[in-house]
């Protein structure tokens, strides 16, 4: 019988960079290994603005969740590709507006799940749950999420930087369609991903892919916009991440437009 501790250790793969840990390093976190910080430094050498891009995407999550919980009235969130806990996690943002909000976090990195279970605690009125699963297995995600969420009521699905980790051969649009098809009318999709229209970023990602345990696939803005097919986009549509409903009085730091995002509703 396999020792669960040995299995978890093997999955951590501390000899190779992992996306969640590299992202944590780029955001200034400490939950990473030397191999992750080294990969992050290689990315920053090739594309120095990448840390700013990571911060912009995190701020998009905050704006999107506040919009969904506040203006749209969503009370259930399915956060796929959680990443390591940092400030303003999905449940904190949603439960500040509506303490009864229920959130399911999904990730397949054992370090992420360990930290999430320890640090991401819900209000008494709401709920948080954690699913060890890969976006490539949407049916499993839905089955596990249904233990916490009422899938007959609207759910906001957040997918930040996740579709980029799925190759075209793995049919990322079909994975999203499977997830959204199981959610009722009034559900929403918030998505962002990196674009392929900057040569320095393309080189940085190519170097990263050559040494990482998981690869990232940049796409054109048009290809990313196609993930919203069949849904009704909320204004301003699919735009540069810094341009989606920016906070008044808080200008975003200048950086290259290398990621796009959007929010859409299933009607």
From TrEMBL:
Ion transport is among the record's keywords: no
Tree of life domain: Bacteria
One protein family per Pfam: Methyltransf_19
An example molecular function term from Gene Ontology annotations: methyltransferase activity
Keyword Transferase: yes
Gene Ontology BP terms: methylation
Keyword entries, A-Z: Methyltransferase, Transferase
Name of protein: SAM-dependent methyltransferase
Species this protein is from: Streptomyces anthocyanicus
